[in-house]
Amino acid sequence: MLDTGPLLEQFRHFYTRNYPNDMEQQIEFFSFFGGLNLPIDIDVSIEQAVINLLSQEFSTLNTLISTLSQEYQPLLSAIAKGDRRLHSAFKRAHMSEAKGGAAVNFLQKQNVLNLEYSRETPPQKEYPKQRLKKEIREHRISHKVQFRAPFLRFWFYFVAPLQEEIERGEYTSLRAAIEEHQHSFCAYSFEKLSNLFLEMQLRSDPVIESGSYWDRKVEIDLYAQRSSGAIIVGECKWRNHKMNKKELHKLRDKCDKLSLTPQHIALFSKRGFSNELIHNTKENLLLFSAEDFKSLLT
Hints:
The chain has helices spanning 7-18, 23-33, 46-69, 73-81, 86-92, 97-109, 134-138, 150-159, 163-167, 172-201, 245-257, 275-278, and strands at 113-116, 144-147, 207-209, 213-214, 219-220, 222-226, 231-237, 264-269, 285-289. It is of the alpha/beta class. It has two domains: 7-183, Arc Repressor Mutant, subunit A (Orthogonal Bundle), CATH 1.10.10; 193-297, Trna Endonuclease, Chain: A, domain 1 (3-Layer(aba) Sandwich), CATH 3.40.1350.10. It has a five-stranded mixed sheet, sandwiched between helices. Strands 1-2 form a two-stranded antiparallel sheet. Helix 3 (46-69) packs across helix 10 (172-201), helix 4 crosses helix 5 and helix 4 (73-81) packs across helix 8 (150-159).
């Protein structure tokens, strides 16, 4: 019933089971139901599709997911709703580092979670007796965790915190939560798919390392290194309006903080781009909208 294989395969399987009308609908519904091997009613709103599924399959799904996650629901909800950094997830779930680490190891073996390793390097002293600033000394490099299937993230983000209401057949709070957080929730899947899309587009000089980048100064949605050594950075926005030059400037500022000169900047936008970005010839820009993701299906 659950597919926790490669994300690209899950994306393709979801399409062949449900045949959404367009890529926006595919990405939105995949963000909630990706990895679930059940047909989904895509002719209704996301929140209604969720309610339709739970009204029919809640007991079966709850038993399956409870078996996979054991007693770690608070940690998994903390990961789903937080910034995915290990230390902040443990703190949010009121777990020690030791117990949290053991839980993550178990959940990896259960094919619930994957680790996303930080590429941040420890600060270097300019001379042996240099005393680093307090915020630098206290900063902790932390890996992040990600769910193996979008449906698992959906479950621990929306369903698990409202389980008692859902078991009684009450969906008012669930519907309200989905309506409020749908856009921000889908943005994460769009970011992960954007990384996959870029890897497929750059086969002439393949991507050898990709993912997001984070350190104490900045977070970048997409940071990819090609076999030639060239770096590509990117920003992903799942919003109902076109991306404009402001987002490019923000990304450039982040690169400056890292003393980074990327070969290309890749921008991914749900609804396309302003004319300023489309006609920008001064930057090495790669511009992609949701409809471009059709190429992931072949």
